[in-house]
Automatic annotation (TrEMBL), chain A:
<protein>
    <submittedName>
        <fullName>Uncharacterized protein</fullName>
    </submittedName>
</protein>
UniProtKB/TrEMBL annotation, chain B:
<protein>
    <submittedName>
        <fullName>Uncharacterized protein</fullName>
    </submittedName>
</protein>
Length: 145, 219
């Protein structure tokens, strides 16, 4: 067995460099993969929350198909249930001209200890108290512990 | 030198192993985008069809006198139909009834009533509305289609398409709603008035319907 100082040192350096690069790439890929997975889950949760609100807490008492009515009590209850499961939610209903019609926050005072997860907006036909219908936008933002 | 080659192969193997979850995560992104698009399309359709036209600046059109010589204020106010109170669903149903096209033995006869002014105005109205509501996020194609009467050699149909697909890349979803057309089939049959049509045995089908579909495309 003979030792070729120049060649073996170069090979070792190349191997170490390659391994380090590979390791850095794997760690970076893994982190971005986890981040993306988390983003997908959060967006999915926000979308599920928005759909559940439209089909449940925002459904008018007479269940008129396709219409929504604001019921602060039901929205508060829904947000409380969500918060008890570690999810803070902010529900906004805005007109198309960006006028804020309703806002409901739960868990937002503790915003600092949460992190902003995701937000989703969906169109909504809102039934007024006087019976007229307005096209609005439901915006759901969620935070997770 | 051999160990370097081994290392490169090892690195390649690991890179392939790492790229598999990344490819999966790309698939997840597509699934989530399609899911959001489907939910957005469904809610847009339902909300639009329930909202009156006055929410979007109102809808009106002139009927009967549509030539320029009749465009004097008195006649215009007399012939203008303001339909601000009607929902988009009602406007589409009315447009379908006013613009039914008759096809006999594969030759198109054209609309059997004159509702072209309404049809043109409604297309412009829907385009501006959808550009505002959907156009910023997705490319879209709204289609309203009705085939209230179809028997051998004779067909009554209506087809309205409003789209903005520039620059659209791939279709994300298509959501469809069915509306019943407020006209009984025997009324449509009687309006046709043709002895050959009147003598035909109409199939006992359900009420005529309009199929309204909204496709969303990624930009």
């Amino acid at each position: 067995m003979t030792l070729h100082v120049g060649e073996d040192l170069l090979s070792t350096l190349a191997a170490v460099l390659l391994l380090s690069l590979l390791l850095a790439a794997v760690v970076d890929y893994h982190q971005s993969y986890l981040k993306r997975q988390q983003d997908f889950e959060d967006f999915n949760l926000a979308l599920n929350t928005a759909e559940t609100l439209i089909n449940g807490a925002l459904a008018p008492p007479d269940k008129s198909p396709g219409l929504a009515a604001i019921s602060p009590e039901r929205l508060e209850n829904f947000s409380r249930i969500l918060f008890s499961r570690g999810v803070g939610a902010k529900v906004e209903i805005r007109t198309l001209s960006d006028e804020l019609l309703y806002v409901q926050k739960q868990g937002v005072p503790w915003e600092d200890s949460f992190y902003l997860s995701s937000s989703v907006s969906l169109p909504l036909a809102l039934l007024d108290e006087n019976g007229s219908v307005r096209l609005c936008e439901l915006i759901v933002k969620i935070w997770r512990k | 030198m051999e160990s370097t080659v081994d290392l490169i192969i090892f690195a390649l193997l690991i890179s392939v192993a790492v790229s598999i979850p990344l490819a999966l995560s790309h698939d997840n992104a597509e699934i989530i985008t399609e899911r959001y698009a489907a939910s957005f399309a469904r809610n847009t359709l339902v909300a639009l069809l329930n909202t009156p036209a006055e929410q979007f600046g109102g809808f009106s059109y002139r009927f009967f006198f549509n030539s320029p010589e009749f465009r004097v204020p008195f006649i215009e106010s007399f012939t203008r139909r303001k339909l601000d109170h009607k929902t988009i669903a009602q406007l589409l149903a009315e447009d379908a009834l006013l613009n039914l096209r008759l096809t006999i033995d594969n030759s198109k006869i054209g609309p059997i009533w004159s509702g072209q002014e309404m049809d043109e105005k409604l297309r412009i109205f829907l385009k501006s509305l959808l550009d505002n509501l959907v156009g910023g996020r997705f490319g879209y194609r709204l289609r309203a289609k009705a085939t209230p009467v179809e028997v051998p050699f004779v067909c009554l149909d209506f087809d309205l398409v409003v789209e903005n697909l520039y620059p659209a890349r791939a279709k994300l979803c298509s959501e469809t709603l069915l509306l019943s057309l407020p006209a009984a089939e025997n009324e449509l049959t009687a309006l046709l008035g043709s002895p050959s049509v009147a003598g035909s045995p109409w199939p006992p089908v359900a009420d005529p319907i309009i199929e309204i579909s909204l496709e969303l495309w990624s930009r």
